[in-house]
Amino acid sequence: MIAADLTPELLAAGRRQAVERGVDLEWVEADAEALPYPDDSFDAVLSSVGVMFAPRHEKVADELVRVTRPGGTIALINWTPQGLVGHLLKTLAPYAPPPAPGASPAPLWGDVDHVRQLLGDRVTGLEFHRQQIVMARGLEPREFREYWKNNYGPTIAVYRHNADQPDRVAELDAAFLRLLTDWRHDDAGGAGYPAEYLLVTAHKAADDD
User: For 102, phi and psi rounded to 5 degrees?
Assistant: First the structure.
C-alpha cells in the first residue's frame, strides 16, 4: 500500500502514526494533480479530506480515474460546503492569499452535482452519503479556535498571511470565534462541533462499459 501527500510535514505525521499502529506503508511525496504512477496502477484509490484541497479539480479527477484499474474503487471523504469546515473555509477566504490560477473552492468536492460532473461516465456505481463527526467535545469556542490556528494547515496559512496586519488578525479572530460559537451544540455525548462530510464511492468503468 502507498500513502501520498504533497506536504512533507503531513507525510512525517503519517509515518509516526503508522508506526504507532503497526501499519506498513510506502510513503511518497506526490501532487494529486500529477500522480507519479502509471495508468491502472491500483485496485483502490482513497482520499480523506486530502485531494479536495488541490486547486484544479478537473485535473485531480482525471488523475484519480487514470491510476485506478478498470473495476477498481475510488473512495473519497470531502467536507461539504454546508458543514462546519465549509463555513470555516468561507470565513477564512476574505483573509486568504489569492487563489492559484484555475483554482476551484475546496468544499465543492462536497457537492454532489460537482463530483458527479467531475467523474462523469468514467465511473459506475457512483454513490453519495452525507455523514458527520462531532469534533472537540468539551472545548470552549475560544480554545477550539486556538487549536485550529496552531494545527490546521489552511488556518495556519491564512494567519501567517496576515501576521503583519494586527487589525485584520483581530477581525479574523472575532469572525472565527462567532463561527465556532454558532456551531457548538449539545447532545447526549456533551457539547461539541458537528462537522458534515460527503462520502463518495465509485468504480472505474471498464473499457467496454
Answer: 80, 5
- Cross-strand pairs, 151: none
Residue 92 neighbours by CB under 8 Å, 6+ apart = 154, 155, 158, 172
| Total-model pTM | 0.91
| Fold exhibited by the domain 31-204 | Rossmann fold (3.40.50)
Residue 174: partners with Cβ closer than 8 Å, 6 or more residues away: none
For residue 50, the 8-state DSSP code is S
Cα 38 → chain centroid: 24
3-state secondary structure of 2: strand
C-alpha cell at 181: 460559537
Beta bridge mates, 134: 194
Cβ atoms 129, 188 nearer than 8 A: no
**Tell me: the pLDDT tens digits for 1-43?**
888 888 888 888 889 999 999 999 998 999 999 999 999 999 9
- 168 near 159, Cβ under 8 Å? no
Pick from 121, 126, 118, 128: which is nearest to 59 by CA?
118
Domain residue extents for the chain: 31-204
Helix (H) or strand (E) holding 192: strand 190-204
